[in-house]
Amino acid sequence: MRTQFKKKRSWIRWIIPALSIGCFSYFGFHSWHGAFGLESAEALEIRRIELTEQLASLTERRQHLERKVMLLSDGAVEADMLDERARLLLNVAREDEVVYFHQLH
């Protein structure tokens, strides 16, 4: 009768714990520092606030432009508005006028 004995290798029992520690380390690191991790949540919140402020500014500008368009295209053009637009486009002013140019954003 022939018997075969296997020698137990001591390093085999450490494979699963070592792989587990590696996986936990990898996912733990990326859950904190990754593109969608906890640190990026703060950056996304700052970006959200910036975009909200930009949206408010653009909404205000749009309302201003809509008011101007309404005054110009309502059928009855306001004389002051027409005069202002004509002077601006033709770059003309009276001799007794003072002209201040400013940019809207």
From TrEMBL:
Species in which this protein is naturally found: Hoeflea ulvae
* InterPro entries on file: FtsL/DivIC
Transmembrane helix: present as a keyword of the record? yes
- Its transmembrane ranges are 12-29
Task: Could you list this entry's UniProt keywords, alphabetically sorted.
Answer: Coiled coil, Membrane, Transmembrane, Transmembrane helix
Where along the sequence do coiled-coil regions lie? 41-68
Name of the featured protein? Septum formation initiator family protein
